[in-house]
Amino acid sequence: MNYNLEVGLKNENEKVVKENMLASKYGSGEVDVLATPVMIGLIEEAALKAVDSKLPEGYATVGYDLNVKHLAPTPLGMRVRAEARLEKIEDRKLNYSVKVYDEKELVGKGTHIRYIVNTKKLKEKAEAKK
Question: Which superfamily does 10-127 belong to?
Answer without folding.
Answer: Hotdog Thioesterase (3.10.129.10)
